[in-house]
Amino acid sequence: MKTKEFFGKFVSVYLLGNLLAMALVIVLLCLGVKYGLEWYTHHGQGIVVPKVEGMTYAKAIALAEQNGLNMMVTDSGYNKRLPANCILAQSPGQGTKVKEGHTIYVTVNSPSSPTFAIPDVVDNSSFREAEAKLMAIGFKLLPPKYVAGEKDWVYGIISRGRRVSTGDMVSIDSPLTLMIGSGMYDREEEDFDYVEPSYQQFMSEDGGDDMDDFEEVMEP
């Protein structure tokens, strides 16, 4: 068999037709998957998320529903310059394209300032340690009040004119004043009148010393 005849069997019209058909099927399958997924996922179609930050919750949820979106509160914060139930943050942000029915997660402004427990710093830490712990929580500190005692040692905490203890719940808006030692001590000198006792020996009837007759006499 000649070489030309050998390769001619492979390069037949029937074989080429099958190869072209298979290629066409693969191309159509790829196009079908691509456009099918885009149709199913609504690729390129989306709703632009509106800005709801700064709105009251009632207005924000009404706007979201008008755009075919849902809204869920996931956290709360506190900003005294904004009204209660105001939207402080949103996710996703303004301008993001999402599908219909997507949920916008928001943080709302609390109607009152949060309260936190006073940590264990009284008579247990220095001024710098207590200052760092309280400020990390978010408390504001006024200039400290110095009292007699060990220098820079915390002896108490005052909030709005009253002393607070460890574990007391205090509003984050209430400034605190730390009572710290000045390094000076109040030494009140008390005068005591000390009287040296003296003993008067009484003679017994037989003229001898009787130890039972000793009597303590306090001299004025």
Automatic annotation (TrEMBL):
Regions that span the bilayer: 12-33
UniProt xrefs under SMART domains: PASTA
Domain PASTA: 43-110
InterPro entries: PASTA_dom
Keyword vocabulary terms for this entry: Membrane, Transmembrane, Transmembrane helix
Keyword Zinc-finger set for record: no
Pfam families reported for this sequence: PASTA
Keyword Membrane carried by entry: yes
Protein name per the record: Putative PASTA domain-containing protein
Lineage: Bacteria, environmental samples
